[in-house]
Amino acid sequence: MMGGGNMQQLARQAQKLQQQMAKKQEEIEAREFEATAGGGMATAKVNGKKELISLTIKPEAVDPDDVEMLQDLVVAAVNEALRAAGDAMEQELGRMTGGLSMPGLF
Question: What is the Cα–Cα distance from 6 to 71, expressed in whole angstroms?
Answer without folding.
Answer: 57
